[in-house]
Design goal:
The chain is an alpha/beta fold. It contains eleven helices and eight strands. Helix 6 links the parallel strand 4 and strand 5. It binds 3-methyl-2-oxobutanoic acid (KIV).
């Protein structure tokens, strides 16, 4: 059955939500057929598939391109598209226009916006306009140039308090779920227990309502660049290399085509 923002919310307290990134129709199809509930067309496409060092060079046009590909697979999973670098900080009308493109042109069913209380007012207006929004707290990769490095969030009490406040502000603004990235696991558990909407963790421990992983990590495309919290559930990178090597050998040996 098709997952909607409403049915996803209802999973809270029922069973763990399983989410993964997808950037193309093929991956979207396989992931949805395997039972993934939510497909995030993440701006991580920049550093996973497009060869950038981080998510900052990813533009709205790129997000529309990749979201369209995922949506064309017509997956049963909910398709959520990332609002890319600084877009969410533009004037309301411009942010809304970006959300409109991601939904009307690309076929996303919801968007994800990185940011806390400072964006809650704007997020509330976006939700009021009919755009379902998923929040993103803790490590916000779009802030990497300000942060200087990726790190764990919510270890210090003041930061933990702020994160909880941010999560509640996003919930009041009407988000249907919140992603918590690299949040201290005990805090992530408290946030999960406090919020009425699902908290989907990445690198935030097992106490969340669900988990999200980057598909190239979980499929084991680049095992030597794996974040410490992730896990490879397959070795697709090795398998791809084996397939290409077999092809190369067959052609060079005159065994293909027959
Ligand atoms: O872009 C992305 O892949 C994300 C996940 C890390 C949650 O935002």
């Amino acid at each position: 059955m098709k997952t909607t923002t409403l049915s996803l919310r209802k999973l809270k307290g029922q069973r763990p939500i399983v989410a993964a990134t997808a950037y193309d129709a093929l991956t979207a199809r396989y992931a949805a057929e395997a039972g993934v509930d939510l497909l995030l067309v993440g701006d991580s496409v920049g550093n996973t598939l497009l060869g950038f060092a981080n998510t900052i060079p990813v533009t709205l046009d790129m997000m529309v391109h990749h979201t369209s590909a995922v949506a064309r697979a017509r997956p049963e999973a909910l398709v959520v598209a990332d609002v890319p670098f600084v877009e969410a900080h533009f004037e309301f009308k411009q942010v809304l226009a970006s959300c409109q493109r991601l939904m009307q042109v690309a076929g996303a069913e919801a968007v994800k916006i990185e940011g806390g209380s400072g964006l809650a007012g704007k997020i509330g207006r976006i939700v009021d306009a009919g755009v379902p929004v998923m929040g993103h707290l803790g490590l916000q990769p779009q802030q990497v140039q300000v942060l200087g490095r990726y790190r764990r969030f919510g270890v210090k009490p003041a930061e933990a308090e702020q994160l909880l406040e941010d999560a509640l502000a996003l919930e009041r603004a009407g988000v249907f779920a919140v992603v918590a990235e690299m949040v201290e696991p005990n805090l992530a558990r408290t946030m999960t227990e406090t919020l009425k909407v699902p908290l989907i963790g990445i690198g935030s421990g097992p106490g969340c309502d669900g988990q999200i992983l980057v598909s190239t990590d979980l499929l084991g495309f680049v095992p030597d660049a794996m974040p410490s919290f992730a896990h490879a559930f397959a070795a697709v990178g090795d398998e791809m290399k084996r397939g290409f090597a077999a092809y190369v050998m067959a052609v060079r040996a005159g065994k293909f085509p027959k």
